[in-house]
């Protein structure tokens, strides 16, 4: 069994309130969860208007599958027009 872990440090392009920030982050989380069937949550910077941290975890019996899936997840977040990625941390254990 292998576990894929991915952490995103994000900057929001727009937003003047925590409510707007949470709508953007919730949208990203919900789309990723439903599209890829992963465990995902906002893990940090909850009270910062312009920053967000999202953590992802995936379990599989194949490393190759995890590498591909984590790559698709990173590509999905990169194409989101509401956020920019500051840093991505990926690990397979």
- Number of β-strand runs: 4
Helix content: 25-40%
> What would you call the structural class?
alpha+beta
What CATH architecture do you see?
A: 2-Layer Sandwich
Q: Per the principal axes of the C-alpha atoms, what is the gross shape? A: elongated
Tell me the radius of gyration.
13 Å
Helix tally? Answer: 2
Give the end-to-end Cα distance, rounded to a whole number of Å.
Answer: 9 Å
Quote the beta fraction.
35-45%
Weakly predicted, low-confidence segments? none
Number of separate domains: 1
CATH topology type: Alpha-Beta Plaits
Sheet with the most strands: spatial strand order: 2-3-1-4
Largest sheet features: 4 strands, antiparallel
CATH class: Alpha Beta
SSE order:
EHEEHE
Report mean pLDDT, rounded to a whole number.
91
> Any idea what the CATH superfamily is called?
TT1725-like
Please explain how this structure is put together:
The protein has 93 residues and is an alpha+beta fold. It has one domain (2-92): Alpha-Beta Plaits (2-Layer Sandwich), CATH 3.30.70.1120. 38% of the residues lie in helices and 40% in strands.
């Amino acid at each position: 069994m292998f576990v894929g872990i991915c952490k995103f440090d994000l900057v929001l392009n727009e937003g003047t309130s925590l409510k707007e920030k949470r709508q953007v982050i919730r949208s990203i989380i919900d789309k990723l969860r439903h599209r890829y069937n992963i465990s995902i949550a906002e893990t940090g910077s909850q009270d910062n208007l312009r920053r967000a941290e999202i953590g992802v975890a995936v379990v599989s019996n194949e490393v190759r599958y995890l590498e591909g899936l984590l790559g698709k997840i990173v590509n999905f977040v990169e194409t989101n027009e509401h956020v920019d990625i500051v840093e991505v941390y990926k690990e397979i254990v």
